[in-house]
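chain below, 189 aa
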Amino acid sequence: MLEKLHTPRWAWVLTGSGHFFVESFELIHGLEHCDVFVSKAANEVLRMYKLKLDFPETMRVLHDKTASSVPVGAFYHGIYHTVVVAPATSNTVAKCVLGISDTLATNVFAQAGKCRVPSIVFACDTAPELETMAPHGLVKVYPRRIDLENTEKLKDFERTKVVESLADLKAAIRERHAELKRAEPAGHG
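prediction:
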């Protein structure tokens, strides 16, 4: 299957956060050549928000079904140019900060780092008080100090851009698109 993937791809990781989940999910549809990595928790959130994984044929959906996160092996074949983890739960952020890669989401982030693939992480816990849309309406969330500290620590990781709002996520994706376009050899695109 890897030999069929000649065009470098986006790797988008969905975690179990509901914070801007629907909006992040919609952004995926705007990308071409994207693999969507769906964690076990994200599968639950998809059901809560009644969302279907119906993407264009240039996209693949990879589910968290193996203990060793087999799909991440594609990073070693140069398949991915960018990883987006959006939205990223405080659990995912904490594990990434500590170097723990025991889920599909954290394993994708770790392998991206080991293969020098830039990552964009939309951290959910970015302020002492937040409002977020839950399946049944708006709720207030009060991130813990440790959650906020971990978000700050992740900002120091190499080739990792942490964004704190939907607008910042959109801007980071546009910036990455522009970087990729500039890097294209003449005559392509």
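The first helix runs from residue 21 to 28. The beta strands are 9-14, 34-38, 60-63, 80-88, 119-123, 130-134, 137-141, 160-163.
thats it, cya
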